[in-house]
Amino acid sequence: MDTASVVVAAREEGERLERTLTSLARQSFDGQLEVIVVASGTATCRVAREHGAVDRVLTDDRCDGPGAARNRGAAAATGDVLLFTDADTVVPPTWVRRHWRHYATTAVVGVGGPLRPLADGLAHRIRFRLLSDWWYRASWPVGFVQQPGPNCSVRRSAFETVDGFDESLSFLEDTDLSLRLCEAGSVVYDSDCPVRTSVRRHEREGYLPLLLAYLVGYLEYALPGRSPTRDHFS
Question: What's this model's pTM, rounded to 2 decimal places?
Fold first, then answer.
């Protein structure tokens, strides 16, 4: 039987996590699907434990960052394909199925898709289209592969081969994983598989400062002996 596991890293989330889990409960995947939440915070753990979509809740007392939380969830997962999304993200009913279909090609080791804003407003839609879709379409063909954390999946065997997320990175850990996965096989961008995610970080920091932070992170990542070190998940 086809088996897939969804890992949700949730730090101090409540109502937002509820919405994420409800979207996962509506998946049209024909195989065996499990949902694992790596949760920190009393309210977050309560929501995760009470939601019918969740198969397992792991308490994250250390809060060592998204990479560590995702690795812990992946270690507890049983699926042949691991999917990752965030606790402030809503996925469509076909999300798991669309990711899964790419793995019928044995060379495929990872899949990523675009992000759309949960908030209304033309400005949000345009900025997300530019930064979280068209940028990926332009960068992937030249080898700069970036599976976004809220919308990515990995073949389990490849995830284990590259040792998962680098837990020392608090910024661009998803990009780092994507680039290492390219050494194990093909990483596919599915432009027709979007998810909707929160704009709170963009509103808190501003689109331009956030864009500049990512550009600096990309440059640091590209320079020998440097790595993205900005604490972006506070």
Answer: 0.89
